[in-house]
Amino acid sequence: MGNALDSTLIAALRGRRSTLLRGLGPLAVLIALVAISAIIAPGVVEVDSLVSFLSDAAPIIALVIGGTLPILAGSIDLSVAGVASLTGVLVVALNPIFGPWTSIVVILIAMAFGATQGLLHSWLQLPSFIVTLGTLSMLSGLALLLSNATAEPIPDNDLFVTYLSDSTGDIPNTVIALIVIIAVLGLLLRYLRLGRDIYALGTGERAAIMSAVNVVAVRTIIFAISAGCAAIAGLFLISITTFSSPTLAGNLLLLSIVGVVLGGTAISGGVGGLFPAVVGGLITSWLRIVTVIIGVQPTAQNIVFGLTALVAVALTTDRSKLGIIK
To answer: Whole-prediction pTM value?
Structure first.
């Protein structure tokens, strides 16, 4: 009996240590990256540089926190970059109809689209990878079609885009909007049953179903939130660049997934959270700065992020839950 107790205690200690490393590890990595960058190029940690960094990082962080929810539930949303790019195109195309409220309408359209994806995935039992990969291709084609494959200036009468383009004091409004999104989603995950259901699905869908979790409703909601965050990321992008392009967010899909796993969220689901997602998004964004500082060519940056994704997935995958890796 003593041996059994010792084994249980050792397992508990190992689990606690793993949880601690998963929680504090990404934050330590972020601090180390900033410290190394400050040594090489002290100017990057000046206040103005940090404010500019947060503004530039806002689109990636929005994509990461939205994409974290499906992964927490054991799924994945590969359509986020397509939604973000199409958002800018729709803001231009629909402005003659909806005027100053166009961006709000576009966010609602994106959320309806995301909900449809979640419904198809859960109700028809189609793999989320295939559903969202297919819709990514459709969205990319639609963006090219609606824009005639050309970049266009954004309208100057859209209320939300105009707000995002401005600052409150010295703080960009994109950063303020991002903080509000994080706070709302944090409260949602912390105090509503939806948060517990998401983790339950990621931990084990069969057990979640036996615990009366409405799988269709939960996945419909989280894919709607993911698409909504992607649309807001698209608005962040066009507010910074002042133009829309059908390929504006084309290179952000890999970065968004890297951000999720770098934050400690297991690609297998059930482990992670909103704060780790924010940290992961910050790490990914800061890595872009590091690659520039050390002289990595822009054409080679995806190699760095691809290797980073492989390492992060290897470290965060719960192999005991998956059993056989396919």
So the answer is: 0.88
